[in-house]
Structures are given as C-alpha cells and as structure tokens.
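This part of the workshop introduces the protein records we will be handling. An example says more than a description, so a record of this kind follows:
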Amino acid sequence: MTNQEIANRLVGLLREGKFNDVYDELFHPDAHHIEPQSEHFANVKGVEAIKAKDAAMGEHLAGIESMEVGDAIVASRHIAIPYKLTANLKDGNQMALDEIIVYEIDNGKIVSEQFFY
C-alpha cells in the first residue's frame, strides 16, 4: 500500500469506529503511541499495549455523542488527521476532544501515532 492508500484506509476505518481494525491492519506490532499531555498514557509501546490503553479509556465512557474524522494530509512518511470527539462519561460528565493525530509510516505500516490537543 502507498502512504496515500494507508491514509485513505485509516480515515475510512476511523470514521466507522473500527479502531481495533486500524491497529490490526495498519499498525506495526511494535508501534509507539505518544501523548505527552496524558497523565496515564504519555508513552505506550506496542499494538497490544495501545489496544489496552483504548480499552482502559473506554471503561469510562457511557457513549459517544459525536465524532468527526477529517480528511488526511499526507506528507512523505507522515499522515495528519483532525479528530473531534464528544463523549458522555459514566460519571455523568461530558468530555470533548479536538486534536490532530500525526502518524508515521515505515515500510507500509504505521510505526507511531502522536496526539496534539
């Protein structure tokens, strides 16, 4: 797959909410998640650990109010995607995310994702 094809597939899966398919199909097994702003998940290594991070975050969600995945920008080995999410939490509060996710590709697989918000 070209980097543009990876970007197109990534956006399609994200818009469908198929996050595990993203990890299983597009990520390298040793991929790296970087989110320095996060108290608990600043630096996560490996797809299985990234999936566990998502599952841990999901335990606090009562439901998704809205989700917007923008069009990808591809530049050499990187993909940037705007992402917005509003979720209802189990504690009755609401959480809103407005971020850019930057993915790095190497040899046809995503090797890192970094969240900016």
Observations:
- The mean pLDDT is 95.
- The beta strands are 27-34, 43-45, 61-69, 73-75, 78-89, 94-106, 109-116.
- The chain has one domain: 3-116.
